[in-house]
Amino acid sequence: MLKKLLIANRGEIAVRIIRAAKDLGIATVAVHSVADAEALHVQLADEAVDIGPPAPKKSYLNAEALLKAAKDTGCDSVHPGYGFLAENASFSDAVAAAGLVFVGPSGDAIRLMGDKVAARSAAAAAGVPVVPGSAGRVDSIEEAREILLETGFPVMIKAAAGGGGRGIRIANTLAEFEQAFPQARAEALAAFGDGGLYMEKVIGKARHIEVQVLGDGNDAIHCYERECSLQRRRQKVWEEAPSKALSERQREDLCASAVSLARAVGYSGAGTVEYLYDDAAERFYFIEMNTRIQVEHPVTEAITGIDLVAEMLRIAGGEPLRIKQRDVAIKGHAIEVRLNAEDPARDFAPFPGQISDLRIPGGPGVRFDSMLYPGYQVPPFYDSLLAKLIVHGETREAAIARLVRALTELQVGGLKTTKPLFLALAADPTVQEGDVHTRWLEGWLSENAAKLAG
Amino acid sequence: MAQILSPLPGTFYRSSAPDQPPFKADGDAVAVGDVIGLIEVMKSFHEVKSEVAGSNVRFVADNEEPVMAGAPLAEVD
Predict the structure, then answer these.
(1) Which active-site residues of A does the annotation give?
(2) Per-residue pLDDT tens digits for A37-88
(3) Do residues A437 and A205 touch, judged by C-beta distance below 8 A?
(4) Residues A28 and A45 sit within 8 Å (Cβ to Cβ)
(5) Which H or E run contains A310?
(6) Domain termination site, one of A164, A186, A201
(7) In the predicted model, is pLDDT for residue A450 greater than 90?
(8) Alpha-carbon torsion (B52, B58, B60, B61), positive or negative
(9) Does the beta-carbon distance from B64 to A55 stay under 8 Å?
(10) Which sequence spans correspond to the domains of chain B?
(11) pLDDT per residue over B20-45, tens digit each?
(12) Rg (chain A; Cα; Å)
């Protein structure tokens, strides 16, 4: 078992990890930027180290400062949380090279899954369905024409070295493709110094469904799926488990495919295999694997009763997987909403400020993961996530009713939050039916802006 | 002399990307509506446009430094 853990993160996830570590009797060391000296994670950890100025680059992304803090405080391990350095292969390597345990997969596993082409090949080799497209890089228009026979239109052209939505073009016809391909190549070369492209069929209306996996390097299990189709600008805002779109058969197939991939790469720690699910064709396609704990992990914890962060710490401490696949079962339905410091009535403008007053919801089936306290000054330097409200009920209908009840109890004074968005969504018949896809929310937002004042 | 103030709290950037030249260099002329920098607030970027005109701008806030809302970013003659 680990003895002393450095939490290389901030905000609600740092608080979450400190809680799991304390439950297991592991000593905790928080790190913080100058702007976070008063943050809740600093108050809750056994020790805290100032690692630099507010800018993430100079503090939470400063690997050297983090490793020094871990050494100086006598830590034997580092948990990266999500974001920041969580999926930075060199950081995982550097932690290991310093003689510490990285709570997550090896640098090589992060590198493999971080390379889109390599990850896709690994998935295909493990028998996971991938979106029809190029098996690897496409370097010539002749090659590209061959692949079009498989993908059809519309087709997406992506820069192999791109990321975060950059360097993506969509062609609807052959004529558009013939024009876009050389442009995309020139653009990729200019932007990334690498003209390699790859191609993928565009799946029109798809749900985002992802499978939680846990591995110990030898064996892997799944903890069923989460559906995160409600997204704004590719950011998830509402996540739930299980997905109402899947039949039992599809659920078992989907989850089994995630386990095959995790096993094939000898995965260690908590990870998530993400898929697009095409309702009309009843088919799922691998998108990517995230090699970290995810923001929305609590919905899985709610329906399975597994403490995923505690399991990560046990695995990192050298224990084999304690949970057998047959012991993982779905109980009820859970929904998480992300409470952000944003004003939904003003196109989600960021809204940093001071928490004047706080009423946290509670009662049966309600969990509130957050770093808020009355008087807390929300800094402008980091992302806008303030809290995650997770509700659990016997059915999806009961979970939605509980969500409305809990949101009504919740009061955050002093700044604007996305609470009005979730009250409006919970009251929407399409959301109640669960008849959504990844681009549904943006359309709904453009038509329902008036409902978001509050 | 007039001042250009930060409309938001956050991190001030003088160029659109680390490898790009600054929007304005010290000594440049500015017109009303010219972009003089960006403020990053909670990972979203907002352009700072000058509300004043002048023949000589001098920056008083440094690149990539935290600023408060209302803090002076530059002076304009």
Answers:
(1) 292
(2) 999 999 999 999 999 999 999 999 999 999 999 999 999 999 999 999 999 9
(3) yes
(4) yes
(5) helix A308-316
(6) A201
(7) no
(8) positive
(9) yes
(10) 2-76
(11) 899 999 999 999 999 999 999 998 89
(12) 22
Residue among A35, A54, A382 minimizing CB distance to B42: A382
> Domain spanning B2-76 has what CATH number?
2.40.50.100
Q: What is the pLDDT of residues A157-168, one digit of tens each?
A: 988 776 655 668
Work out how many domains chain A is built from and give that number.
3
Dist. CA A420–CA A337, nearest whole Å: 11
Domain for residue A117, yes or no? no
CATH number at residue A58: 3.40.50.20
Residue A247 has pLDDT above 90, yes or no: yes
Can you give the residue range of the structural domain that contains A320?
A: 207-452
Chosen for mutation from A10, A233, A235, A381 (greatest number of chain B CBs closer than 10 Å) is: A381
pLDDT tops 60 at residue A19: yes
What's the whole-number mean pLDDT along residues A380-402?
97
Contact B47/A at CB under 8 A: no
ipTM, interface predicted TM-score of the complex: 0.81
| Cα nearest neighbour of A349 on chain B | B44
Question: Which residues fall within 8 angstroms of residue A8, CB to CB, at 6 or more apart?
Answer: A31, A60, A66, A78, A79, A80, A81, A84, A85
